[in-house]
């Protein structure tokens, strides 16, 4: 049940934030912290760092397969609580970006950070949930391996 709540919350927050940014033209470029963080609306036809740009159909199929696999895994396995949370974050994030690809043909991004002078690729809440989910899944896997003596 927690997985459904987390996935839905991520999806709703992602789509709501994208809608607010996209529908308010005055929000397409806002300096929040000068030299560090901006709201900058962008259309991304690829994935991270715009890799596979223009491959919307392929990326949509991959997202559907990944969501399907994660849902199947949650239903057929007995993952620990941390793994459930990780997968829920990843499902919600993948669903948010999949919605964009199927509806608009691109993903709506808007979080733009400059880190130590590097203009980090613009991203969104779905991307954040995916990254956090993957990061925590690595931690969960390492913890499980340590507990099993590996």
How would you describe what is shown here?
The protein has helices spanning 2-23, 56-76, 81-104, 125-147; strands spanning 29-33, 37-44, 107-115, 118-119. With 150 residues, the chain is an alpha+beta fold. The protein has one domain. Helix 1 (2-23) packs parallel to helix 3, helix 2 (56-76) packs antiparallel against helix 3 and helix 3 packs antiparallel against helix 4.
Compact description:
The chain is an alpha+beta fold and 150 residues long. Helix content is 60%, strand content 16%.
Give the rounded overall mean pLDDT. Answer: 93
Major β-sheet profile: 4 strands, antiparallel
Distance between the termini: 31 Å
Number of helices: 4
Work out the strand percent. 15-25%
Shape: globular
Task: Determine the fraction of residues in helical runs and give it as a percent range.
Answer: 55-70%
Low-confidence stretches: none
